[in-house]
Write a structure and sequence with these properties.
By secondary structure, this protein is an alpha/beta fold. It has a five-stranded parallel β-sheet with strand order 12-11-10-13-14, with helices on both faces. A four-stranded parallel β-sheet has the order 8-7-6-9. Strands 3-2-4 form a three-stranded parallel β-sheet. Helix content is 42%, strand content 14%. It binds FE3-S4 cluster.
């Protein structure tokens, strides 16, 4: 691999031990994937925040890294295991909370913006077309690759952190123009709803694995795109998609010779049936990925003037920034359940609190059984809210 003189100095330890270890990891990953060099990055988004997922081993690792390193590009953080302010209300133990707050403080020490959201692109971390970034969080990186035309691979938590410290990542995969072409055309038929985009993502991810789909027949806004991206990354390993007439690089590629797959409502229904293992729900959770302002506005408009008539728990998950920006709508939602920030239904320890969970997000419905021991109901916001109205 060819390194610049500055990169070689970093690798030789001239900028300190923390930088040396970070660039060593970036170079090692690059060698595995056949990269010829590194590319400077403009931002990073780092996962591996919840105490539930990283445990005490993760804390020791972060304590060690934070002693000798700081990030050198703007870096944001994925959701943690609890709402940093309302964790008691969520049923989180004192011990978990203490460790979780320590993890966030370690990231803060390294200069990471501790936003704790999986939609950093709706806040202050929105890359531009053609910019190289190093993002973890499969839904977010797919969104910036696809809707923005920024360039990132599917980074893991430690890889994204190392790239943030080194200010560089290895130049392979989706950083290179030749790897961003569609691999399959998807002719989609949906009713245009958010929920059907979630199911479409589920069906496409299962069908194509880690390919790059080129969609026809849909016109997703950011909200539909993010729930679809999340589902494709969970049921498959899709890190980028194109949508005809919507995404910035869709027109750049020759589609001749590509296979076309039809996805109609029948396939979407099958995807819903495969995800659903119960009709019961102790917890109904929305906001995977975190709810946008527009989603909260639409939910509040739907719930305005209605009353909650059941004791089933409802959670609305969003970023702190969005929660603080719309107090009136948040107040409407709070009559049905807490609007939680910093966390989500998957990375918080729901397994100690509930047995049956429901969500409109296919991504959440993939992970709630495997990471949270839940039986799951996957359904639309309107149909799930019928349970409590
Ligand atoms: Fe975000 Fe949690 Fe879903 S991190 S994409 S809300 S699983």
């Amino acid at each position: 691999m060819e390194l610049t003189a500055a990169e070689q100095r970093m690798l030789d330890g001239e900028e300190g031990e923390g930088v040396r270890k970070a660039i060593e990891l970036v170079v090692a990953l690059g060698k595995i994937y056949g990269a010829e060099g590194l590319v400077p990055i403009r931002s990073a988004h780092i996962s591996g925040v919840s105490y539930k997922t990283i445990g005490d081993g993760g804390i020791s690792y972060l304590e060690h890294v934070s002693e000798e390193s700081k990030v050198r590009v703007p870096s944001t953080l994925n959701p943690s295991g609890m709402d940093s302010q309302r964790w008691r209300e969520m049923g989180i133990s004192e011990d978990f909370a203490r460790k979780q707050l320590h993890i966030i403080e370690l990231y803060e020490r390294m200069g990471v913006d501790t936003t704790c959201s999986c939609t950093p692109y709706l806040g202050g971390n929105l890359p531009r077309l053609g910019e190289h970034v190093a993002w973890a969080e499969s839904s977010a990186l797919s969104m910036v690759n696809s809707m923005v035309g920024a360039r990132t691979n599917r980074e893991g938590g430690p890889g994204a952190l190392a790239a943030a410290i080194a200010g560089r990542t290895a130049d392979y995969g989706l950083h290179r123009e030749e790897n961003r072409a569609p691999t399959v055309i998807i002719e989609a038929e949906t009713d245009g709803s958010l929920f059907q985009h979630s199911l479409l993502g589920q069906a496409v991810g299962s069908a194509i694995g880690n390919g790059i789909p080129y969609f026809r027949g849909i016109r997703p806004r950011w909200e539909e795109a993010k729930i679809m991206a999340a589902a494709m990354a969970a049921s498959g390993a899709v890190a980028m998609f194109h949508v005809e007439g919507v995404t910035p690089e869709a027109a750049d590629h020759d589609l001749s010779g590509l296979e076309t797959v039809h996805m109609s409502e029948g396939e979407l229904l099958q995807a819903q049936e495969r995800l659903t293992t119960t009709e019961d729900a102790d917890l109904i959770a929305f906001g995977c990925p975190h709810l946008s302002e527009r989603e909260i506005k639409e939910m509040a408009a739907f719930l305005e003037g209605k009353e909650k008539r059941s004791d089933v728990t409802v959670w609305f998950c969003t970023s702190r920034q969005v929660r603080e920006s719309m107090p009136r709508e948040v107040e409407v939602l709070e009559r049905f359940g807490p609007v939680l920030a910093d966390t989500c239904m998957v990375v918080t320890p729901v397994e100690g609190l509930f047995a049956n969970s429901a969500s409109d997000s296919a991504k959440a419905c993939n992970y709630l059984p495997t990471l949270c021991s839940q039986k799951v109901r996957c359904d639309s916001f309107e149909r799930l809210m019928e349970v409590v109205l």
